[in-house]
Amino acid sequence: MASKAGKDSGVVETIKTIVYALLIAGVFRTLFFQPFWIPSGSMKDTLLIGDFLFVNKMAYGYSRYSCPFAICPISGRIFGSEPELGDVIVFRHPVTGADFIKRLVGAPGDTVQMRDGVLYLNGEALPQEPAGTFEEVYERQGPLGTPPRCENAPVGEGDICTNTRLRETFPSGRSHTILNTDMSFADNTPLFTVPEGHYFFVGDNRDNSQDSRFPQAVGGVGFVPYENIIGRADRVVFSSAGRSMLYFWTWRSDRFFTRIE
Predict the structure, then answer these.
(1) Which of 164, 236, 247, 252 has the most CB within a 10 Å radius?
(2) What is the DSSP string of 188-226?
(3) Is 7 helix (H, G, I), strand (E, B) or coil?
(4) pLDDT, tens digit, 9 for 90 and up, residues 13-28
(5) Per DSSP, which regions of the chain are E strands?
(6) How far apart are the first and last CA of the chain?
(7) What is the pLDDT of residues 170-195, one digit of tens each?
(8) How far apart are CA 221 and CA 198, in angstroms?
(9) 3-state DSSP call for residue 141?
């Protein structure tokens, strides 16, 4: 029979192992990659509800928001590099503290405006070309149970929901797809001038995204400070079409390690 001292020693070693594992995981999450699960459809069809990805924290350096609960003792940003227009970025909401994921469309000093659903950057329209139709089943999606918005509404439960897909291109030549459902008040905005040290973000699902087009006072994002940026989303690891990412039988086989445009 094992001695009491031996049992105590085994318990201590187990506790030490757990503590070390948690410390290593915490360092890894703080310095390198943070897991993120897509809860809403604001970035369709680039990102789907249920996509699971890791956010690259090394891409833009570190701020206090790089740590859980914003506890990093960092003033401003260290080892910082500038994000590029078109990057898909996770950032901390300036007011609510929630983590958001959107596409960067305006850097400090840029002017941004939506006119009839077309994004204008520094007075020039970003070209949009037809890219087919995005189709999905009309059903409640993800843990929030939110049904999609459909251009062909009304759509019955289980029927096909469609939205126009367009390919939008930045002056750099970088392009990505966006969705258009209908003409909404978000398709025409005032002219925004991005202030120093801030960035402007928009969702790819243009008619279903609370982003920098909306002021923070009404639930929008507004201008996002540089220090609120957490990291860049580069690749989807896997994707679940069910109510939980643990329901492996609902994983989408075509989205494993998909590169994010």
Answers:
(1) 236
(2) S-PPEEPPTTEEEEE-SBTTS--STTS-GGGT---SEEG
(3) helix
(4) 556 555 544 444 445 4
(5) 33-37, 51-56, 88-92, 99-106, 111-115, 118-121, 124-125, 128-137, 160-169, 175-180, 192-193, 198-202, 224-225, 229-239, 258-259
(6) 61
(7) 999 999 999 999 988 889 999 999 99
(8) 12
(9) strand
> Is 42 designated active site?
yes
CB atoms < 10 A from the CB of 40, how many? 19
How far does Cα 207 stand from its chain's mean position?
A: 16
Q: What domains can you pick out in the chain, each with its CATH number?
A: 7-259 (2.10.109.10)
Residue 95: partners with Cβ closer than 8 Å, 6 or more residues away: 216
Q: What are phi and psi of 36, to 5 degrees?
A: -150, 135
Burial-class residue 52 by CB neighbours within 10 Å (0-12, 13-18, 19+).
middle
The residue from 102, 209, 212, 240 that is catalytic is: 102
pTM of the model: 0.86
The Cα-based distances of 146 to 49, 215, 217, 243, 254 in angstroms read: 10, 23, 24, 11, 22
Single out the catalytic residue among 42, 66, 239, 240: 42
- DSSP 8-state code for residue 146: B
Asked if 148 and 41 count as a contact pair (C-beta separation under 8 A), the reply is yes
β partners of residue 201: 104
Q: What one-character-per-residue DSSP string does 40-67 give?
A: SSTTTTTS-TTEEEEEETTSS-B-GGGS
Strand partners, 161: 136
